[in-house]
Amino acid sequence: MIRKAVENDLPAVLEILRDTRAEMASYGNDQWNDDYPQAADFLADIAQGSLWLLEEDGAPLAFVCLNGVQPEEYAAVNWQFAGAPLVLHRMAVSPAARRRGVGSRVMAFAEERARAQGLHCIRSDTYSINDKMNRLFTRCGYRQAGTMHFKGRPLLFCCYEKQV
């Protein structure tokens, strides 16, 4: 089941975040570090109703933020699909829940949310060395629209979009 997260879910979200950061660090990916994301980011997502939690038998397995906020860096990307997008931010699947289709379920949910809101495309980005997320985007039928830099990050971010 996927549902909107509430403040009481913050400890579970932060646990998934902690485990995901540790796994990323184990293969040299510093996309998420002590600076980003932080608890305040998730509390803001919850307050705006944009943080979603995937649970199985009451156990939180993944989270994602879905809204219409595009980073200013997106302006330089050669997007193919016009119109207001649903933007996928801060997605993570608990390392303990990997290889069970959880990530694909979250991505399918994002597509359902976009259609329910009358939106025709989804946009997102991930660090160029985040092989797992880059593969997930490709596996779910997303097109790489280009690359960009975020301030303070040494490597490129790959930008993806999908028409829904």
UniProtKB/TrEMBL annotation:
The keyword Nuclease does not apply. GO terms for molecular function: acyltransferase activity, transferring groups other than amino-acyl groups. Keywords: Acyltransferase, Transferase. The keyword Glycoprotein does not apply. Pfam families: Acetyltransf_1. Residues 1-164 form the N-acetyltransferase domain. This is GNAT family N-acetyltransferase. It comes from Anaerofilum hominis. The lineage of its organism: Bacteria, Bacillati, Bacillota, Clostridia, Eubacteriales.
